[in-house]
């Protein structure tokens, strides 16, 4: 036999309301306890009754302690988030510097013959956008080097001077 779906709306009957509240609170407490045992987690559950009954099992000092634990946890999460973003920024800067050095070394040997692209870029979802951007930049750089090479071939060059465009 299948249980019917219950329409969620406020219960008007005071007796039925109290019985439902008590039963659902017990089930909620059991689920929180199960979660704590199964996952070895600290679970805090605060349930206030609309009848004004005192909170069972929690004193003022327990609430202050709970507030302190929550604040400490929030600060820890914020610190981890900041540290992670700093680390990601540092990695991005190091990758940028590596790519700049590789491009500069390619430009340095620009007029000596055919170019070979030996860029090693770490693969990953974060780097795909960077790769697309750098592909466009490298294409423009190749185009510029090709134009310089054509200009050198067309005009007689004085070997005593050399110009670099960058």
Automatic annotation (TrEMBL):
Residues 107-166 are annotated as: Disordered. It is found in: Nucleus. Residues 145-156 have a biased composition (Basic and acidic residues). Keywords: DNA-binding, Nucleus, Transcription, Transcription regulation. It comes from the Eukaryota. Its main location: nucleus. Residues 157-166 have a biased composition (Polar residues). Residues 1-52 form the MADS-box domain. This is MADS-box domain-containing protein. It comes from Brassica cretica. The lineage of its organism: Eukaryota, Viridiplantae, Streptophyta, Embryophyta, Tracheophyta.
